[in-house]
Design goal:
The protein is mostly beta strands. It contains 1 helix and 28 strands.
Amino acid sequence: AQVAGAHVPGPRSAMTRDGTVVGGSHELRWGLTAISSTLFANCIFCLSRAEQICDAGLPSLISFTFQPNPIISIDFVGTGENKMLSGRTITQCQEELTVGSDDVLGDISVVLTDEGQGCWTNPTYSHGDFDVVQGRSTGGGFSYLSYRVSPPSSKASSFAASGQHLYLRVAPGEELVLYELVNGLAVERATISAPSNIGAPTFVDTTIQVHQLTTDIVYMVAAVGEAMPPVTRRITHAIDATDCMDVIPEAAVVGDLAIVTTAYSGSCWTDGRYNADEVLVEQGMLLGEDGGTRVAYRVHPPAIAPTEFIGSKLGIKFRSSSSSRVVVQAYIGQSFKHLASFLAEAGNFTSTDISAEDLLGPTILIISDANNGLSMWPAKGDVEIATLGSTDDYIAGARRFPVPGRPFVPESDWPYGPGQHSGNYGTPKKIHSSGSF
């Protein structure tokens, strides 16, 4: 808002038709100007004394608070048998996979794999001896059959020419999901379907490489479609999801927001040289003093900087339930900042063109339909009204009216400067007329 003639009205003042306040020894002129917000609006600003000019009953600007959603943590408890699985007795090179009782715990087995050099079962060229504990993973009223698998205790004396995969037994027509328990959260790792030509339970490759384990890992087994605890907080890693993958794994997703490593020079870098890493994402609700609520995400900047420079960025993507234009707002301090606008495709993740590296600190993001963005201004019909501030003697109030168009924003509409070709020529000033009434 803009006030022309920054004078305060005297105790005996009146307003003329052109907006000038006369009387006493002071003068106040109202200014009408176009301002930029999520909704382009004209704003009338008024400074009044003792309710003589503006009504003193305008509502205050709405304050918001971010409240993280509760976290449901899952813990593993060993309740069943403990067995050492060799990992060298059953191989993928066998014409028919025969799994003996000594090589099974519950419904899992460890099978030696052909890594391009055949199936080497001797200790010279393969690891072996995997300690496995059967149990349950529980929390928040959820409970799942689980197995804790330890790294191989017998290492290849020369080098590992063959590896080992985790196999899971499935019944005819059965479809299961294997999750990894990471910091109390279930992260989907594989979906296993029974072959269509079997008439009895059989072991199926999960493709999970247990010969590469360096620490104990808990794997949870659940049926496809079985309810899982909602993930409301997660530290995502650059390797979890990249633009070089066909789909975005759930390991990179919190609610409807995903952190995805972008491509740089034809590759998606995840080894730490040309990418940052470890982004904390928290899902919650943004609660307004007026009782309004909105799903929001608090996204933190990467915790680990690249060792060389940033090539692949940690992009923020959003999944919408409908195909529509949406806006991304950041709630900073006590105000909203428009960050981006894009056309979302129903059910799919769409890039917001914002990366975690762009954030200066933990930032609350709200992603809404373009016609339903959040505002700290109370609305009365199409008009936004608020008291901006007050003292014992004076009240500053304002009204914002929607009008078509959009103002010129230098930092986005003309982001050129010295040393740039376009910056050498400049651009005409973009001025919106203002006046009093």
